[in-house]
């Protein structure tokens, strides 16, 4: 039994936010029924996105709706508020929240009071002041971006197939990916695989007509899988005629021309930006301590340093790695740590409410797996190195075991099974991004090319 009524506020509905709330509602089931505890989750989306499946969703191997987990169904004992936390005053135990309703009402943000705070807003894309990037760049952090990129790639193939202008055709069939981490490499691998397959249905496009370029500022890609597997990945991508440029930066993409630091220039209509992330801006609008990278300074128990009743994990938190042999090391901000940290964080909140000792987060990094397209992958797990089909199979098996809910596991497995029996779908549904365009034209107006309202804001 808890000592007194507790209001728990969870900011963010991603890995940490959803799994923390899920574990809290299980462990505090009786307290929730008695009204002794209240859990509120503030999130910009009514779903949690399982990001490791975004590349397969972009390639059409998984339906977009199976990459997301509906929070209202999973967190049925929690109060779900669709909106954003714009500021937190932990000294007063209040958070300023904006929702779709507050925008309509024009009354400004509303104040939520709490007793225990979990800050897990995740991260946003880290961009640089590169000319043309804001106008032409495409991100790869959300399911909307993944499906939009799939539609865009197929649309470019349609343009190339129908134009008589060789310059337009060349630009349409040139795809530049910036960033050699998991997001960039897996997105490139899956989409190149899809486009190669789709080319057989175009009478005048061959796979070798397309240019796929990976730009990475450092001297290696996929550092998480180790140097040897990173070199293998470069070899495998180049064998597929993908131009991998290491120690190279994107300097401009203005006027639809990608200019690289090595002097190369590529007219292109596709620049995908996956070059890192940064902490969510809401962290700067709190009175909680942050490190030089903008992440919250945390203890090994996942509480915020010097702030009682404040907790954090995942991308937003700088958590000490107690398994490291050297002091000062921090846990990597990846999904593997986030999932495990969420469980310890939820347990420690329960321990705090029940006046029990706290647990220390301790997990040695097991390794990483990456997909490079259908039946292709690399893995470095528990010291063992795998490549090709075994690594690809391990990638699928691991993430199938980690995707939340039995419902999603069954649906993803069914889609994979059907995909093995039937041909790929190569349909572009780009018109979904402007659903009112045809009606506006029929009504005598000019179709709007503005995207639909985005509750997430500019971030």
Helix and strand arrangement:
Elements lengths: L5 E6 L3 H13 L1 H6 L2 E7 L3 E3 L4 H6 L8 E3 H4 L4 E11 L4 E6 H6 L4 E4 L2 E4 L3 E3 L7 H4 E2 L4 H20 L3 H7 L1 E5 L3 H17 L12 E5 L11 H13 L2 E4 L4 E3 L4 E4 L4 E3 L2 E4 L3 E3 L16 E2 L12 E3 L4 E2 L16 H19 L13 E5 L5 E5 L2 E4 L1 H14 L3 H16 L15 H6 L17
Parallel strand pairs: 1-2, 1-8, 2-5, 8-20, 10-17, 11-12, 11-17, 12-13, 19-21
Antiparallel strand pairs: 3-4, 5-6, 6-7, 9-18, 14-15, 15-16, 22-23, 23-24
Write up this protein.
The protein has 459 residues and is α/β, with parallel strands linked by helices. The chain folds into 2 domains: 196 residues, 3-Layer(bba) Sandwich (FAD/NAD(P)-binding domain); 143 residues, 3-Layer(bba) Sandwich (FAD/NAD(P)-binding domain). It is built from 14 helices and 24 strands. Strands 7-6-5-2-1-8-20 form a 7-stranded mixed beta sheet. A 5-stranded parallel beta sheet has the order 10-17-11-12-13. A hairpin with a 4-residue loop joins strand 14 and strand 15. Helix 1 packs parallel to helix 11. The radius of gyration is 23 Å and the shape is globular. Its EC number is 1.6.5.-. It holds the Pfam family Pyr_redox_2. InterPro entries: FAD/NAD-bd_sf, FAD/NAD-binding_dom, NDH-2.
In the sheet with the most strands, the strands line up as 7-6-5-2-1-8-20
In DSSP terms, counting alpha (H) and pi (I) runs of 4 or more, how many helices? 14
- The CATH superfamily of the largest domain turns out to be FAD/NAD(P)-binding domain
Largest sheet: 7 strands, mixed
The first-level CATH class of the largest domain is given as Alpha Beta
User: In percent, how helical is the residue content?
Assistant: 25-40%
Topology, number of strands: 24
InterPro entries: FAD/NAD-bd_sf, FAD/NAD-binding_dom, NDH-2
Domain FAD/NAD(P)-binding: 7-338
GO molecular function, one term: oxidoreductase activity
Biased composition (Pro residues): 449-459
